[in-house]
Amino acid sequence: MSAPWLYLPEVPVCVPATCRVHADEARHATGSRRLRAGDAIRLFDGKGRVADALLSVLNSNGSLDASVEVVHTMARVQPDVEIACAIPKGDRLTTLLESIAPLAASRWTPLRCTHSIVTWSQANELRAGRVLIAACKQAQQPWLPIVAAESTPLQVTREAVARGRRVLVAHPAGSSLPQSMSGEGAFTILIGPEGGFTPLEVEAVLALGGECISLGSGILRIELAVACALARLRV
């Protein structure tokens, strides 16, 4: 069985070193995994740094101390893909986030669209952080997606173009993603709500240099569309 991954916002740069994992993060490792002193663990900071460590002390407050032996810096998966999409209802938000992390999106922006149903909230933001960390641990993905502030399609496009990114908006009338796009460039993909983007929203994105892409002949739920788009660029 592989060593469990634990999230530590500040992984040591210099080794050997000792660090403390807080109780909330240590609970799974010491509970369901039943780890004990001397067992191997891996610590990651969500910014590409991963440490091989040994659990040294289980503290009475539930935290654990770890002895860090080796630190690796892992490159980000290419191409660099950001996702901006409408917020799905209920538990489907969790499903959405659980695909964004393993498929290595670098950033996720909740979109506020004309046809949006769900409103972004602080509670959703806290939930998103927890789900993304758990998904990164499960997938052994060292880069944690950034959760950006809620924005409109126009705001996301304007900001992405200013950073030199290629903006793709999922639309039934769009072209299929060509194979040549895999492994190159920096992309921002916009995916709308169940009712789709309005013509005005699409026109505003295209006017700034965005391109329409198709994810197939069917109308997909938001979380499935996100997974399909990311997977296509990871081939």
Description:
There is one protein chain. This protein has 235 residues and is an alpha/beta fold. It folds into two domains: 69 residues, Hypothetical PUA domain-like, domain 1 (Ribosomal Protein L25, Chain P, Beta Barrel), CATH 2.40.240.20; 154 residues, Alpha/beta knot (3-Layer(aba) Sandwich). Helices cover 28% and strands 29% of the residues. The chain has a six-stranded parallel beta sheet with strand order 8-7-6-10-9-11, with helices on both faces. It is elongated and about 60 Å long. The model has no long low-confidence stretch (mean pLDDT 92).
Distance between the termini: 28 Å
Structural class: alpha/beta
The number of domains: 2
Q: Write the CATH homologous superfamily of the largest domain.
A: SPOUT methyltransferase, trefoil knot domain
- Helices, by number, come to 6
Mean pLDDT: 92
Shape: elongated
Q: Note the run of SSEs as H and E.
A: EEHEEEEHEHEHEEHEH
* Rg: 20 Å
Query: Proportion of β residues?
Result: 25-35%
Summarize it:
By secondary structure, this protein is α/β, with parallel strands linked by helices.
Short key terms for the protein model shown above:
235 residues; alpha/beta; Ribosomal Protein L25, Chain P; Alpha/beta knot; 2 domains; 6-stranded parallel beta sheet; 5-stranded mixed beta sheet; elongated
